[in-house]
């Protein structure tokens, strides 16, 4: 049995019968339709936001618009799908791909269509799904736990940080964190510029303050660094070395308030796609870190109107 939507004339009859107080069942009988068809038509096309009235002309326009949208993706060419595959293999999200294509004037596909394309590809044995983000890590609540972190002498709390930093109005304000691998030695240090999301990643042979300061100074010496915001890990205890070398000010977030460094936390989640938890970082090279940072910096971001961090970031003037 083939389902057929009601016609424009039937919509006008439906409107008249509703105004006369007829029930859904009686309207369906008069129009020779199943009552579910009538019920579905009213639910989809009545003006629920305003007065709940059913207006046949508006219902017709909505139906035609939906039909056009549903047909949009039938116009997709293999060239567009090739672009989608290319950007997926760069680990862009479907939303980032659509935003980027829209910027280029290619309004042919929605992010939902890309997800459906990925699942169809997976059902056929394809591997495009492996380029999607992993689920965010679970967090455990800490009920009245003793706070053993944050014992850093003369540290400046994040509440002392200029308001301009929070508003992302100017460039040069960075967030810093470390990403641990399997074992207790090798790890990564990640730095994200708050306004643009520009990211640099460094490989550390150990988590000592000396090794961290050496790598951070090397990575940031050619960048504008007005402030750095860190957590309360022991690797940041010698923050005064960074302040002196980079002519900057280091601020510290409240212990266990990771949302105060949300930009860095989110970036670390993206980096975990390449260095998952439990993976040893011993054999990771700085060249690999630079390659991953390049991927992140050339990936369009929704909050940047789908421009890339690299496009928005202004290098330090000499």
Helicity level, as a percent range?
Answer: 40-55%
Q: Which whole number gives the mean pLDDT?
A: 85
List the uncertain runs: 135-150
Please provide the ordered H/E string of secondary-structure elements: HHHHHHHEHEEEHEHEHHH
Find the count of extended strands (DSSP E, 2+ residues): 6
> Biggest β-sheet: count, sense, barrel?
6 strands, mixed
Give the spatial strand order of the biggest sheet: 1-6-5-2-3-4
Helix/strand class: alpha/beta
Query: Counting H and I runs of at least 4 residues, what is the number of helices?
Result: 13
How far is it from the N-terminal to the C-terminal residue, by CA?
A: 74 Å
Write the layout of secondary structure elements.
Blueprint: H1 8-19, H2 24-31, H3 35-45, H4 56-72, H5 78-88, H6 94-103, H7 111-123, E1 156-157, H8 163-166, E2 173-180, E3 187-193, E4 199-204, H9 209-220, E5 227-230, H10 239-246, E6 249-252, H11 262-271, H12 286-297, H13 309-312
Parallel strand pairs: 1-6, 2-5, 5-6
Antiparallel strand pairs: 2-3, 3-4
Task: Explain what this protein looks like in three dimensions.
The structure is a single chain. The chain has 13 helices and 6 strands. It has 318 residues and is α/β, with parallel strands linked by helices. A hairpin with a 5-residue loop joins strand 3 (187-193) and strand 4. Helix 1 packs antiparallel against helix 4, helix 2 packs across helix 3 and helix 9 (209-220) packs parallel to helix 10. The relative contact order is 0.10. Mean pLDDT is 85; it is low at 135-150. Pfam families: HTH_38 (PF13936). It comes from Enterovibrio gelatinilyticus. Belongs to the transposase IS30 family. Required for the transposition of the insertion element.
